């Protein structure tokens, strides 16, 4: 699929299996999600811009590298919060914005309730984090908000996507690259991803 990067590292596939498993309790779900998100961050930042520097080792000088591309992480509340810890572990200098959005159970349309992102998004890499891309409504709305705030380079990072969600996001924002650990079979009539992993927010916070 164009614009879709599949994160299929064996360790990610192993973790995704545990996350899908209905027997995995909240505490374990959170811990595994955190670990997986660090592995995802590694793939999502593979082409990050760096600049050369020189460091002194105890013996002589050596060429080294610093990350030269500012990064802003934007989790979509609530479930996106589960990906933040793992990302900041490997990207300690990243700034973090938040978008509060939930999907109405009746209309399946996204309802927004909070928006706070750093200023000057123009020249930064914005990574939108949400474990699920279902109908794609939340993702399209979140990216539109970010573009309205000046963001120009945006990647959408998700654990599990549906083909419908991928199509909708690609149609709404063809410039946004999607990183996902799986494109699942489809959606049920309630807009849940099949086979999916259930409602990630509820499983993380024990609100099923
Ligand atoms: C889930 C998920 C996404 C959205 C995906 O959030 O975390 O934000 O649904 O659905 P969509 O692609 O059809 O828009 P939810 O509404 O369950 O809110 P929560 O994170 O607060 O639990």
Which percent band covers the strand fraction? 25-35%
Q: How many distinct helices?
A: 6
- Helicity range: 25-40%
Residue runs with pLDDT of under 50 for 5 or more positions: none
Give an overview in words.
With 208 residues, the protein is of the alpha/beta class. It is built from six helices and 13 strands. Strands 1, 4, 5, 6, 7, 8, 9, 10 and 11 form a nine-stranded mixed beta sheet that branches. Strands 2-3 form a two-stranded antiparallel sheet. Strand 6 (98-103) and strand 7 (110-116) form a beta hairpin. 1-O-pyrophosphono-5-O-phosphono-alpha-D-ribofuranose binds at residues 76-79, 101-103, 108, 110, 130-139, 165, 191, 199-201.
Gist of the model:
The chain is of the alpha/beta class and 208 residues long.
């Amino acid at each position: 699929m164009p614009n879709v990067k599949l994160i299929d590292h064996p360790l990610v596939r192993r973790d995704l299996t545990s996350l899908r498993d209905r027997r995995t309790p909240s505490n374990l779900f959170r811990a595994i999600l955190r670990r997986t998100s660090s592995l995802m961050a590694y793939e999502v930042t593979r082409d990050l811009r760096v600049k050369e520097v020189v460091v002194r080792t105890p013996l002589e000088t050596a060429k080294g590298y610093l990350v030269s591309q500012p990064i802003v992480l934007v989790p979509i509340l609530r479930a996106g919060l589960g990906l933040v810890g793992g990302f900041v572990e490997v990207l300690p200098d990243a700034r973090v914005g938040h978008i509060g959005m939930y999907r109405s159970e009746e209309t399946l349309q996204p309802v927004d309730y909070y928006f706070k992102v750093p200023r000057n998004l123009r020249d930064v890499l914005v990574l939108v984090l949400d474990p699920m891309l279902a109908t794609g409504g939340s993702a399209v709305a979140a990216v539109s908000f970010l573009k309205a705030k000046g963001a120009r380079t945006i990647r959408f990072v998700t654990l599990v996507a549906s083909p419908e969600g991928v199509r909708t996001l690609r149609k709404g924002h063809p410039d946004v690259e999607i990183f996902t650990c799986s494109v699942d079979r489809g959606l049920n009539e309630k807009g849940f991803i099949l086979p999916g992993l259930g409602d990630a927010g509820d499983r993380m916070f024990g609100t099923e």
